[in-house]
Amino acid sequence: MELSTTTLLLCLALALSNAAPVPGDAAVDDASLPDRCDEIGFDAITPDENGTTFFFRGSHLWKGFRGPAQLSNESFQQLDDIHNIGHVDAAFRMHNIKHEGDHDHMYFFVDDKVFRYYGHALENGYPKDIQQDFPGVPSHLDAAVECPKGECMADSVLFFKGHDVHVYDIATKTVKTKTWSHLPVCTSALRWLEHYYCFHGNNFTRFHPVLGQVSGGVYPKDARDYFMKCPNHGHGGGHTSLNCSDIKIDAITTDDAGKSYVFAGTNYMRLDTRREGLHAFPIARWWKEVTNGVDAVFSYSDNMYLIKDDQVYIYNAAAQYTLIEGYPKTLKEELGIEGHVDAAFVCPSHATVHIITGGTIRAIDLSATPRVVTQEWTLPFSHIDAALCSAEGINVFIGATYYHYESPITLATSRIAPEPQHVNTAMMGCKE
Ligand SMILES: *[C@@H]1O[C@H](CO)[C@@H](O)[C@H](O)[C@H]1NC(C)=O
Ligand SMILES: *[C@@H]1O[C@H](CO)[C@@H](O)[C@H](O)[C@H]1NC(C)=O
Ligand SMILES: *[C@@H]1O[C@H](CO)[C@@H](O)[C@H](O)[C@H]1NC(C)=O
Ligand SMILES: *[C@@H]1O[C@H](CO)[C@@H](O)[C@H](O)[C@H]1NC(C)=O
Q1: Among residues 95, 108, 131, 188, which one has the fewest Cβ atoms lying within 10 Å of its Cβ?
Q2: Does the keyword Oxidoreductase apply (predicted)?
Q3: What is residue 328's predicted lDDT score, i.e. its pLDDT?
């Protein structure tokens, strides 16, 4: 199953609560500014070092997925008429963790020149001729996009010109040219949440960064339904900058691959991809059978366990979250317990799940068959929403407050609650 056989629902909502929708981009009063909901599309799209995505057209840009246009030189000073630049041809953010001096820097391409920025400031020595930094890459590009190792063979940049794609290996500084005639000519390209998109006019097409093949749905799709909010387009989902104090999560877990998820209502959000921003999607996008939210989630040995009411769903995380045959099963059958589960967690490289139901916490050995409760304690509080165990210890969430414990045993046995802490921007991307 490909991720986007279900739609790439770019909700742009931090749907950790049901906040009211806010007006779309059409609410732009200034008619002198370009409107991203027209059919023209973009010259370049790239994230900056903080994960804010910039959409460029002519001398203007849009900062992020919402909001009106502004002059590009307000954000990137030298992108202006003085330097004879009315537009950028292509842009990308460098992925090069081996060279910190290059990593996360932004590159803009204009005719035969490259401009390099960090912290939105033009760097010394720039602009340069493109070939000084990227030997073998042609001038007058159409689009560019980063492609880290793992997604491409090596840390690379894909440069598009017509139907040719020049794959630039940043370590060896060598170029391999391919021709992908089946793809539209991309006016801009974007890597977003580990997928690759070629933008052309108001449309976009998802492609495989190595093979070029178009997969995971019917393309082209209209960018106005996904990458921005336009009148009469998209699902009309609300966008919120949710206040941190309004956060209420149902479950939180980190799997063996380091993917970190929070669940709230019928949505989930990945926390480890914050370089692309934080985005909420329906839980059923990945976990198809779970359409009505979750009570608790934990990860163990390549599997993700989702608990809702008295049902346990086990998904194989290594196989794109396919439901394991025979599931869901009842809590009683699977874990030997009953009652409403509030929270569950497994600590890294442990085989014990701790399940919190009301004021009780139970330890269950996951390596034993059948599973049995090995220990049980009474907690000093009830009404826990979610809990996460990491190498640093355990965080127990109650609304927008969380409590930190060193270990399951301190959580189970301490009679004094630790200092309450508050969910913050760094943790959940909410507004403080
Ligand atoms: C920004 O660009 C606009 C239009 O290209 C130009 O009129 C203006 O002078 C520029 N502003 C600065 C501060 O360079
Ligand atoms: C990126 O985020 C850091 C930390 O919040 C901030 O100090 C910096 O100004 C941001 N950079 C840009 C270009 O917005
Ligand atoms: C966008 O896609 C629609 C539907 O496939 C098509 O009719 C239209 O010509 C496309 N426009 C561009 C600029 O690719
Ligand atoms: C967040 O808090 C501010 C100030 O307390 C308030 O004005 C605003 O409406 C709140 N936003 C939401 C989405 O609740």
Answers
A1: 131
A2: no
A3: 97
